[in-house]
Specification:
Layout: H1 5-18, E1 50-59, E2 66-71, E3 77-82, H2 87-100, E4 104-107, E5 115-125, E6 132-144, E7 147-160, H3 167-191
Parallel strand pairs: 1-4, 1-5
Antiparallel strand pairs: 2-3, 5-6, 6-7
Length: about 200
């Protein structure tokens, strides 16, 4: 009988070494704007056009503890990218930042006659590989009085490559794209609510 134990052990050792096993899940900090973009020149703030009341930000993602995946050379997931930050607070910071620079104000307290906005985070995901790609999907509802002024899903993708690219940057870039699409729609319907 031929013994294959040394060959089998060598194959197992090679597969473990080549799999790039992650021993722990990496942790990502959610910042907005991300540190790499905080030195950018901010757009001039215009006088307040309107006040929006933030009713709620909810996290509707299936895996609320994960913001991405780490994959090995064969494309197999070997770890989840987690965050200790609350994604709802990240969305609120980003929404406040973008609204202020579009001439609006976001309030978390009740404001009479203000348009009410609710945001549901449906996806925020960035796989860890050589070229960072991210996807953010938000369901945003704006109400005025007793009617829906705007209800739409905003989905944006972004990518960054190179040594300076980070998952934090690319997620913020995707979020910025989604929120700026929302702001364009909001400006249109707020100016002409009966259309």
């Amino acid at each position: 009988m031929v013994q294959h134990k040394p060959t089998l052990l060598a194959l197992v050792a090679l597969s473990l070494l080549g799999s790039s096993c992650a021993l722990t899940d990496p942790v990502l900090t959610l910042a907005y704007p991300p540190p790499s973009q905080q030195s950018e020149v901010r757009p001039a703030r215009v006088p307040t056009a309107s006040i929006l009341q933030l009713v709620a930000v909810t996290d509707e993602r299936q895996h609320q503890d994960a913001i991405g995946d780490v994959r090995n050379g064969w494309g197999m997931r070997i770890a989840r990218i987690r965050t200790d930050d609350d994604p709802r607070e990240w969305i609120e910071r980003a929404l406040t930042y973008e609204l202020e620079h579009a001439g609006h104000e976001l309030s978390t307290t009740k404001v009479p006659d203000a348009d009410r906005v609710s945001v549901a985070l449906e996806r925020a995901f960035c796989p860890d590989d050589t070229d960072y790609r991210a996807e953010v999907r938000l369901l945003i509802l704006v109400e005025r009085g007793d009617r829906h002024l705007l209800r739409r899903t905003y989905e944006a993708r972004a990518g960054l490559a190179g040594d300076d690219a980070t998952a934090q940057d690319v997620l913020a870039k995707a979020l910025r794209k989604a929120l700026r699409s929302f702001l364009a729609d909001y400006a249109r319907v707020a100016a002409n609510p009966n259309s």
